[in-house]
Amino acid sequence: MIRINENFTKLKASYLFSDIAKRVAAFQQANPERSIIRLGIGDVTEPLPPVCVEALHAGADELSRRASFKGYGPEQGYAFLREAIAQHDFQARGCKIEPDEIFVSDGSKCDCGNIQEIFSADIRLAIPDPVYPVYVDTNVMAGRTGANVDGRYAGITYLESNAANGYVPAVPAVATDLIYLCFPNNPTGAVATKAQLAAWVDYAKRHQAIILFDAAYEAYIRNPEIPHSIYEIEGARDVAIEFRSFSKTAGFTGTRCAYIVIPKTLVAYDAQGRPTPIHALWNRRHTTKFNGVSYPVQKAAAAIYSDAGKPQIRAMTDYYLGNAKLIREAVAKLGLPCVGGDNSPYIWVNVGRDSWEFFDLLLTKAGVVCTPGAGFGKCGEGHVRISSFNSRENVIAALERIAAALK
Length: 407
Ligand code: PLP
Known about the structure:
Distance between the termini: 59 Å
Number of helices: 12
Strand content: 15-25%
Low-confidence stretches: none
Bound molecules: pyridoxal-5'-phosphate
CATH architecture of the largest domain: 3-Layer(aba) Sandwich
Number of domains: 2
Shape: globular
CATH topology of the largest domain: Aspartate Aminotransferase, domain 2
Largest sheet: 7 strands, mixed
């Protein structure tokens, strides 16, 4: 008899954003005349930068001619993209990362979800709360947790982010093996200083642990003191994997391109305690289960590093940060404490009440969709995440409607 993976039954019934979509769809069906503005799911709205569009067209043209046609490319990504990434995202910031330490993929969601496969089933996990749900759910699916009791899975050390610690969790008192960190943070928008990240690198070294550093929102950092990469911290090459995505950097949520950095010096240990390079393990996994990102998409991704591309993606992230500033100001006027929005596209608002109740209030009274904090973890309760990913007009209209609804 064919059997299911019982670990899936430990998961909450559906993914947070499917729950939100269902509630929004039900409201829209009951109120077809109401217009709804979505500041919930973190999906970009502005068109691709012109350099990327040109590169996509040029890439498609190359595929249309026999002489320049391409079939399967290297699973790890074309050299032109890996070289551009290493040079512009890392070496330019003083990080010693080489092109062959980069694995190009079709998204950070898959990368963050898949990476846990190469680690033992009985490792100890440290995961922030609130958190991007993928880190937790993929470990639940893999059987690394017990049941969910009162919003918490047995077997995870939760790193609580709250107002008291500025939404940047300190290292735990207990030893763990695999630590997920995300800065600028989704959902809180908080950023970590060099000293805070250095404490994590030191912790990982002491415990022979690995940090998974998700920097999907790196392009939104404006404070020059804030590190963009974990590799800006001394010694991080030996303890950290970094995830980057073109989704929020260049509007690629629908185009799909991302990458993981795995330094060749990074090791984990086998049952006999022998160090084993993670790079080789991931290369084996990646080349077995993945066949590469399409050539025109990799061309489009590489275009953001050109002289013409750099100001275009800066203008795009500046645009969303302009929205974020308006949201922060409007939230402050309402007297609600908030963080984020200055080095991040997300604003994390302390609404001082049940987060789904506040979500419903905004939906029904203002026709505005936010994301209830409870969906990101127990510590998210009492908060909502407002996303700046929308047109300026929609953000202004949404803020006016929210102000009127909460009067
Ligand atoms: N990591 C974080 C923290 C995110 O918020 C997201 C998307 O919202 C992702 C990863 C996934 O990005 P991608 O579009 O590359 O799959």
